[in-house]
């Protein structure tokens, strides 16, 4: 049986995931009076194009900052507005720190890490976050930037997030890891020589994407089905366990009790760079799917395809989405086209 979406009315305490400590916060989402509906992919006439964070034009950056400013302002005007920044950040806490139980299993926490639902869950999460930002500035083309730490040009902390006067800033970060420091994709690496770090990073990327992977679940993560225990880290895919976690820990503040913000599941999405970090994870999923290999890239197990989650969309409507519906490698994946725009306008 596939993982079912949680019942928001039963959401409870969140715990720190490694120690089990009770966290002093309520990260439960607002309850929707009208329940949820199944999400329908809207018609698409143009693709949104995500860019590397170092490559945004001043205009694009200005729009991104304005959208984030408006999203943060919603926290003040209505803390229960699911589009507000704190509510958006809390989604990560609720789905990752045991606030949600698995539907029908009151003693089992729901967890979206270290299994095959990691990529689809985070893709949907970014998808709605991006649509909300776009709708707050009325820009249907708005696209998140990605932090391409897999490429030497992107291996520093992205400068656009390091301006204290910007809504993209977060003060809970390791202040030694601002530019020109080079991020290491090895967890808590002590190396300081940039040339060495870059060459280590490139071999990590090769191993996680190609050399160390012989099946789809080795990259994506092992099966996680209804009734299963919270998966341990060892069941996660190569990229999730490796470079992805290393970046989280590298950015978080080592002087905070739990390496906040980016370095802990419960607080990670309070740092706006979380969404650029995960845009890159999302991009690397697509790149991996495009690499020709002897093994099959597509997981056809219904328990993967039908695993489902709930999110609020840009109209504050609670919607249910399925893992398989955002996996572009699926044979049944059909981009929705607006007929009047002709064939090249097809997109996801
Ligand atoms: Cu849900 Cu990078 O983690």
List the helices and strands and how they pair.
Blueprint: E1 37-38, E2 51-52, H1 58-77, H2 85-96, E3 101-102, E4 105-109, H3 118-136, E5 145-146, H4 194-211, H5 216-220, H6 238-251, H7 273-290, H8 302-305, E6 308-312, E7 318-322
Parallel strand pairs: 1-7, 2-5
Antiparallel strand pairs: 3-4, 6-7
Helix pairs in contact: 1-3, 3-7, 4-6, 6-7
Structural features:
mainly alpha; di-copper center containing domain from catechol oxidase; 3-stranded mixed β-sheet; two-stranded parallel sheet
Could you walk me through the main structural features you see in this protein, from its secondary elements to its overall organization?
The chain is mainly alpha-helical and 348 residues long. It has a single domain, classed as Orthogonal Bundle (di-copper center containing domain from catechol oxidase). The protein is built from 8 helices and 7 strands, in the order ββααββαβαααααββ. It has helices at 58-77, 85-96, 118-136, 194-211, 216-220, 238-251, 273-290, 302-305; strands spanning 37-38, 51-52, 101-102, 105-109, 145-146, 308-312, 318-322. The strands form 3 sheets. A 3-stranded mixed beta sheet has the order 1-7-6, covered by helices on one side. β3 (101-102) and β4 (105-109) form a beta hairpin. α1 packs across α3 (118-136) and α6 (238-251) runs antiparallel to α7 (273-290). The radius of gyration is 19 Å and the shape is globular. The chain starts with 36 loop residues before the first strand and ends in a 26-residue tail after the last strand. Mean pLDDT is 94; it is low at 337-348. The structure holds CU-O-CU linkage. CU-O-CU linkage is lined by residues 92, 96, 113, 122, 244, 248, 268, 278.
